[in-house]
Amino acid sequence: MSSNDRVRIGVPSAVVGVVFVLTSLFLGTPLWGANTIYVSKSHGSNSNTLAQATVSCHGNVPCTPWASLPGMVSCSLNCASYRPGPGDHFILYGGDSWTASDLGVNWQWSGTSSSKIYVGVDKTWYSSGVCGSSWCRPILNCGGAACAGNSNDYFQASGSYVTFDNLEMTGIYQNDKTYGTDDFFVVYAPNVEIKNMYFHGWSHGPVSTSANIYAIVYPGGGCSLPGTIFHNNVVDGSDTTKDSMNGIFACFERVYNNYFRYVVSAVLAHVNYVHDNVVEYPVYSYAGDHANGIFNFGPYSGTAIYQYNNVIRHTTGCAGCVNIWYNGYTAANSSLVAYGFNNVMYDLNSSNIVDIASHPAGNYGNYYLFNNTTECGSDTSTTTCIGGADSGKTFQVYMDNNHWITSGAVCSLGSGQGTCEPEVTDLAETVATANSKGYTSSQRYAFSPTSATAPTVRAGTNLRSTYCTQLSAIDAAMGAACRADTTYGCSYRTTHHTLSCPARTSNTRPSSTPWDIGAYEYATRSNAERPD
Questions:
Q1: Span 505-530, pLDDT tens digits
Q2: The listed CATH number (2.40.128, 1.10.10, 1.20.1540, 2.160.20) that belongs to domain 35-97+106-500
Q3: Are 183 and 202 in contact (CB under 8 A)?
Q4: Is 529:445 a contact under the CB 8 Å cutoff?
Q5: CA-to-CA distance for 111 and 84, rounded, in angstroms?
Q6: What is the structure's pLDDT at 524?
C-alpha cells in the first residue's frame, strides 16, 4: 500500500508518516523495503527520487535510475538517505563501470529468511555499446589503484540474508596486507549468497609479506557464517602477472560450481560440502604463500566433510602444490569423517596428490574415497597417490572403485602414519597401460572409458545400499550425486566469462549390477565423450 492509498482511507498523510516512522524505529525495521531500484553510473543521478529510481528499466526502456548503489563511497543525496530493507532488489546496468572514486561498497543492511535483499542484474538491461549484442556484467573497477574507501576492499558485506549476483570485480591493487584489506569481497555476516561473479585483473606492488589477497574472505575468528554459500563464480587470473590472489579463505557450509584458474590457492576454508568445482593452473605466490588446489581445513560444522564431482588439473607448473587435502587444518578428532567421490584429477605435479589430516599427532578419523579417477602426476612423471603423513598421526582410509593412473604406490604411509585399506575393486595402472586401453589425459573428459570392454566398465562394487544410502540421509542432492557418475564440474565460457554447469550430463549408476571403476559410468546410449 502506498502513502496515497493510506490517505484515501481517511487517515491524514502527516499522521500516517509519523506513525510509520515511529513504528519502524520501534520495531527496528527499515524505513523502506520491497522496492526494485535501478542503478546506472552512465545514465543515473543520485538526485533522482526513490519513485524515479524504481521506474522499471527492463528491456532498456527510458528510466531514471540512481548513479550509485547504497553503500558506495559515491552514494549521495537520495541514494544516501535510503535504507535498504527486506525484499529490496537493486539492479545494476550491465556494462557500466564504477571506478575508484565510487568504491568500495560498505553494505550494512539485512533482509530476512523469507524476504532476502538482492543486489544484481536484469539481463535485458545492458549497454550494447559495451556488451555488444548480449548482456554482460556491471563492473566494479578501481583501475589498478587504491579504492577511495573500505581499506581498498571492493565490497564489505555485514548484512545477512542478502544475495549478490553477477557482478564483475577487477582492477584491485594490493598495496598492503593488513588482514582483511585489499580483498575483493569481505563477508562478515551469515546467510549471504555470492553467485555468478567474475573476479579477475588483480595486481600488486612490492609488498613484503607471506600473505596474499582473496576473492572471498572472512576475516573474523572462528567459524560463524551459517547459511553463507559461494557458487557459480569465476576467479580467473589469466589476465594478471599470475603470481598472487587466492580464491576463498572463509568458513562456508557449501562451495560449489565454481571455476578457479591461475590463483595461488583455490579453496582455503572450513567447508562441509565442496563439489562440482574446477581448479586449474595454480601459481606460485610472489609473497611466499603456499599454493593449493582444494585445501579443506576441516568441517565448517560437525565432524564431516564431503568433496565430490570436482576437477583438479594442470598443476604441473607448481611443484609442491597441494592438489586435494581432507581435514588439513583441524585438530585431531577420532570422530572426523570425510567422503570423496566422483572427483577427476589429472596432469598434476608430482607431490601432494591426495593429502589427509593435519600435521600434529593424533587420531583423525575415517576417510572414504570411492569412484575417483586420479592421474597421480603427469603423463611423463607419476608418483605415489596418497602419502606424506606425519609421524604419530593416525587415520583410516577406505578405498573402493578408484581408478589410479600411476607407476608408483597408490598409498605409501610409514609405520604409525595412518592406514589404507587394501584396494579390492580399485584399478591401478601406468599411464602407458591406461593409454593402450583408450584412457588418455587428452580426452574431452580425461581418462574416461571409450568402449563397453574397457577394463573399468562393470568391474567395480555396487555401493548404492552402503555409501549412497548413508549420504542420501544427510543430503538428498549429495545422495543423488552418489548414485550417478561425475558431472566434470562446470564449463567455462570465455565470452562474458560465464559458466555452464554441469559440464557433462551424468550417467546413472546401476541399481543392482556392478558399477564401473572410476569417476565415469560407461553408457552404450551415449558414452563419456558426448558433447556438453
A1: 999 999 999 999 999 999 854 444 44
A2: 2.160.20
A3: no
A4: yes
A5: 8
A6: 58
